[in-house]
């Protein structure tokens, strides 16, 4: 990740602790901010956590230099990434950016005058799914379709990724529909994180299109996808279930009651046999409850 930062920023981050680093936030003429499992912190020029008044201030030139390193001085060669609002760099790290949108026919054609970058570090937590594995994958022989529910930042995707890895290692054929490239953190189509030996990744596919490809061409036993919430998502998952495919998915929410109140749920809540509710109460990935959503499970 440091190789894609402006030299001074790379030097500062190189001195900071990377043990639990989750994000780096760069804003023009604003303090350098990092996020760890303990929250957000300001850094000074030695990479130390300090009050805001003592923090290192990121310059416009450092933002520009970082963008040049990421794009290899070819901004317009990254049109698709620019339209969707983020880059994925080697290692699977994601770089989101803010600036002035340029529209063509009401759609974003490019973005100019970049004012901030948010770098989200891709990392897996091997073993984090093991306490749930015996519940989701019974005796290594039957996978129960499972919906993981939590507010943002509570470890849904990390848990989902490790479940995919464990289930793949247990011998199941797994397909990940990775619409936002967050589960496998693919770079140029190749997963940068371990998602298991029998896992295929449909990187960047919308869920409905990915579900169709999975059923027609890949013969999955389990399909894994992240952040469902659109009516089309519900219909796609329901079709997978009708084809006998088990589904592991996540969505934002506080509880099953919260999720069931949404319009898209009517199409697919019957797909799921289990719901796992997460929080950050004891850190990201805290399992608050595991609930049965269907009789006989």
Polypeptide structure, described:
The chain is of the alpha/beta class. It folds into 2 domains: 2-120, Beta-Lactamase (2-Layer Sandwich); 130-292, P-loop containing nucleotide triphosphate hydrolases (Rossmann fold), CATH 3.40.50. Helix content is 27%, strand content 32%. The protein has helices spanning 7-15, 60-71, 79-84, 130-136, 156-169, 207-218, 231-242, 256-260, 265-268, and strands spanning 21-27, 30-31, 33-36, 39-43, 49-50, 57-58, 86-89, 93-104, 107-120, 137-138, 142-143, 146-150, 174-178, 199-203, 222-225, 246-252, 274-279, 286-292. Strands 5-4-3-1-9-8-7 form a 7-stranded antiparallel beta sheet. It has a 7-stranded mixed beta sheet with strand order 14-13-15-16-12-17-18, with helices on both faces. A two-stranded antiparallel ribbon has the order 2-6. A hairpin with a 5-residue loop joins strand 4 and strand 5 (49-50). The chain is globular and about 55 Å long. It starts with 6 loop residues before the first helix and ends in a 5-residue tail after the last strand. The mean pLDDT is 91.
Brief write-up:
With 297 residues, the chain is α/β, with parallel strands linked by helices. Helices cover 27% and strands 32% of the residues.
Fill in the keyword field for this structure.
single chain; 297 residues; alpha/beta; Beta-Lactamase; Rossmann fold; 2 domains; 7-stranded antiparallel beta sheet; 7-stranded mixed beta sheet; 18 strands; 27% helix; globular
According to CATH, the fold-level topology of the largest domain is Rossmann fold
Instruction: Give the end-to-end Cα distance, rounded to a whole number of Å.
Output: 43 Å
- Spatial strand order of the main sheet: 5-4-3-1-9-8-7
Listing every helix as H and every strand as E from the N terminus to the C terminus, the arrangement reads: HEEEEEEHHEEEHEEEHEEHEHEHHEE
| The CATH class of the largest domain | Alpha Beta
Q: How many DSSP E strands? A: 18
Helix run count: 9
Helix content class: 25-40%
> What number of structural domains do the residues give?
2
Q: How big a fraction of the residues is strand?
A: 25-35%
Oligomer: single chain
CATH homologous superfamily (4th level) name of the largest domain: P-loop containing nucleotide triphosphate hydrolases
Assign the CATH architecture of the largest domain. 3-Layer(aba) Sandwich
Poorly predicted residue ranges: none
- Derived from helix and strand composition plus strand pairing, the structural class reads alpha/beta
Which outline best applies?
globular
Radius of gyration: 20 Å
Main pleated-sheet profile? 7 strands, antiparallel
What is the mean pLDDT?
91
